[in-house]
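Handout, page 2. Input:
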Amino acid sequence: MEDRKRKKGSLFELEGIPGMYEALPLALQHVVAMIVGCVTPAIIVAGAGQLDNPNRVMLIQAALVVSALSTFLQLFPIGKRDGLRLGSGLPVIMGVSFAYVASMQAIAADFGIAAIFGAQIVGGIIAVVIGFFIDRIRRLFPPLVTGTVVFTIGLSLYPTAINYMAGGTASPDYGHWKNWLVAFLTLSIVTFLNHFTKGFLKLASILIGMIGGYVIGCFFGMVDLGPVSQASLFQMPNLMHFGVEFEASSCVAIGLLFAINAIQAIGDFTATTTGSMDREPTDKELKGAIVGYGCTNVLGALLGGLPTASYSQNVGIVTTTKVINRVVLGMAAGILLMAGLVPKFSALLTTIPQCVLGGATISVFASIAMTGMKLITSQEMHFRNMSVVGLAVAIGVGVTQASASLAQFPAWVTTIFGKSPVVIATIAAVFLNLVLPGQKDYGNREKC
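Output:
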């Protein structure tokens, strides 16, 4: 009788069905940890694409809905257990990824939002192919390479955060002291909660920081609630609302990022199983995870949802609490889905002052960069590995900061290589890691 009760109500088993009073707080914990990160890329891309407010709301709605659907697929796979399945069946949360933001900003500004979704479809197909051949492709992306890419992603997002802290480049008050004051007050709240509190306050530090910054912004007259009153109470995402356009250079840039993120997802899925289930993920689980990831991104592009990926902060919650019950995480996805179907909620998010957004997210971007650094330093940093990382980051960041250096090349070269340092850094890191000789050939040089 006791075993039967445990099976029905266990939070610590995939198949358990816990009570609502147990599951709901834990589900809300997951939502709080990721919702700001989920909607922020949509807000940033909407600004880069100069979307009007109704379309901004639609982009945020789609981000929440597609994140929920992607999470559902990973939690409850489609297909036979002993055959090919879409989804991993592991306790993970999926959300819109910051990894694509820098490239999406450039594409939105140059070619429009539709080009992002065309490139996303191509990227999703690439991820599906990688899923089928994951064992052969995985060796091209050891922690040294993926760490370099993640570190560069963090670096590429810093200018976005600083511009937002200053009020947003399109704002007539860009650089005003009020923007900087509100931004730093927001950042101070986030930093205090991160380092001087525990439990829920620490987990929700970014959300609470943004709420605090939002209230402060109200006193400075930075908040206009007009869009909330104009938004409807319920609305489904529209199929192909933003259209789909296949622009070659955009497809290459986003497709490469999809390849990287498909490989990087292995790290999150592995961290989930080793940290909470005391085992490595099986090959079938990894294949299903990445194939499912590709398929949901193709579907997401048609629904107007930006590229998704597994969320590391939620992996951290799972490994810390050991709560792997799929009903708990499915409930979190259900909350995201409901939020995405309420335009008033999405419209409220569009009223967040840009300086508040910048003050809250710069810590997120710093965390991304340091995660990359942690991956890099998990390898021995001898002369060869330092060369791989140093040269890849130098070339990637250097070329994009001096984008005029590509002025004599065709426009597509600038779109692929001159807009985001991530693409060049990725190619350089993979290439250098393959061609540079092993450490044993550099023993004497290191002693010099």
